[in-house]
Amino acid sequence: MMLKVPDHQVAGHRQARDGKPSPLIDDAGRFYKPLQDDDRGSKEVAFYSSFSSNTRVPDHVRRLFPVFHGTQLIEASDGSGLRPHLVLEDVVSSRSHPSVMDIKIGSRTWYPEASEDYIQRCFKKDRETSSLSLGFRISGLQIYGNEESRLWKPENKLVQNLSAADVKVVLKKFVSSNFPDDPNSDPDCSFAASVYGGSTGILAQLLELKAWFEDQTMYHLNSCSVLMVYEKEKVLKGERSDAEAKLIDFAHVTEGKGIIDHNFLGGLCSVIKFISEILTSPDECTTKVCLQDSDKNTNDSENCTTEGL
Amino acid sequence: MMLKVPDHQVAGHRQARDGKPSPLIDDAGRFYKPLQDDDRGSKEVAFYSSFSSNTRVPDHVRRLFPVFHGTQLIEASDGSGLRPHLVLEDVVSSRSHPSVMDIKIGSRTWYPEASEDYIQRCFKKDRETSSLSLGFRISGLQIYGNEESRLWKPENKLVQNLSAADVKVVLKKFVSSNFPDDPNSDPDCSFAASVYGGSTGILAQLLELKAWFEDQTMYHLNSCSVLMVYEKEKVLKGERSDAEAKLIDFAHVTEGKGIIDHNFLGGLCSVIKFISEILTSPDECTTKVCLQDSDKNTNDSENCTTEGL
């Protein structure tokens, strides 16, 4: 089995750093995620085991989660020896030029059962990023331009605390044909209908997820992300879009105990609202969005740029 | 104009205490709420003024808010002299024997624009009550029994931190014909269909509210309550139920700035889920609810009583 480090990880904490091994992929579409040493690793295994064998999860919801292939002891990417890995469906790297956005859902990433130290750290970060105001934060993204070699991958710190107007611009850039890091061009949203829209598009997938969260009281998906992925090349060639939404990162899942996950649901509805607005008003100019969204105390025209992006 | 102190206030902070004057009512169905001295009073006036003149609010949503009749200088209930009052539709006291429940919506009652002191106090209270876990807390309630003179009005402190199982019991008692403070009788839910159900029942009203919150980005209703009111006598006599849901308490409303109120929406969806379950499984016995909802570490049968209620 040939394993390699994947090219397309967009959220910081999933990459190798702080001496931790990075995930690995094989050429058969599997993603190997090293189990974290603390109880996060075992919690994530526990969630995947429970979820994959839970007959109450309908098929149209199950396909919004990566397929789980169990755990496996393999050599860690940093050469530190054999280590247990989660074996999952590789959502991203099986595509050649995937545009990817990782959106961490929820205005609150902590949960009552966590340690006070963890709660305070999350509480601080939620207030420092857009999580508190928007109900989600963009944890990372990469967008391919029209030419294969060009990739826009802003630093994660730059996208975690965007205003409503700037999040809308980024969500538009994600589905635009003009090159995303050009500050002089407004995103044209020319792929919005095929990526976000339609009966199999990302919005339809998120709405199925929403309907399930309005009802299910089994799991609370604290600090989970929705990953949106698609291959721009396909859309450019006029092929059917392969756009997918997938939930990832389950190290902090807790039992629902008969209560819906109102924190995840609220944040998901906020993402849905942003994407819906792009679909219903694709021609809306950036300035108009800013006039509507900007704070009264700031200058509207200044607010219309996505500074630093 | 004859004014009197209303009989049926259920949420603590709306009653006279700490030397503050209480609200007043007249016999023409109006409710006079003294403006609070700090900026909460002016904030609530600002919200009612904005909302009542906002042509983007559809009629079916507007009727879920008390009608606003402006402000008026009247003698305060505590004889402290003339004082400005909000003049509102009297939702509760115009009924002779109203059963009332005040549910404060949202897992978070604070908001970023508030002072750090206020944030920390709310944060603490949200964690100490059911707000954090359930996405709402019962702020107060009164339920009339079958005989006119009997009223069950538990102390507010006893209902603010209920478990999921106990909230369900209280929501069942609210629509049951057997007397609510009898610990030996399971609530029979005999009024569930006429109060919660049907095309004009409370669930239908909450679902209309939910649809609006999925879309509107004008207001964030921090620390607001949904008041559920109905007259049990009417249902007992076989008359059409007058059940109503009304939003109240807008002293902490902030501008939406293009973002949905995901905190309110999440909490509202949680209330809706509880009420839906009562409607879809009215015959479900208390024990069964407890087995499903109880924490693994507690004894199921113990958990099936609503101790102290």
Mind telling me the C-alpha Rg of chain A?
Answer: 19 Å
The portion of residues forming beta strands of chain A comes to 15-25%
The shape of chain A, in one word, is globular
Return the CATH architecture of the largest domain in chain A: 2-Layer Sandwich
Low-pLDDT residue intervals, each spanning 5 or more residues of chain A: 285-309
Distance between the termini of chain A: 39 Å
The major sheet of chain A is characterized as: 5 strands, antiparallel
Succession of helices and strands of chain A: EEHHEEEHHEEHHHHEEHEEHHH
Overall strand count of chain A? 11
CATH topology of the largest domain in chain A: D-amino Acid Aminotransferase, Chain A, domain 1
- Provide the domain count of chain A: 2
**In terms of structural class, how would the helical and strand content of chain A be classed?**
alpha+beta
Q: Work out the helix count of chain A.
A: 12
Describe this protein's structure.
2 copies of one chain form a homodimer. The first copy, chain A, is an alpha+beta fold. The first copy, chain A, folds into 2 domains: 78 residues; 206 residues, D-amino Acid Aminotransferase, Chain A, domain 1 (2-Layer Sandwich), CATH 3.30.470. Chain A has 12 helices and 11 strands. In chain A, strands 7-6-5-9-10 form a 5-stranded antiparallel β-sheet. The longest helix of chain A has 19 residues. The radius of gyration of chain A is 19 Å and the shape is globular. Chain A starts with 23 loop residues before the first strand and ends in a 6-residue tail after the last helix. The interface between A and B is medium-sized, with 33 and 31 residues.
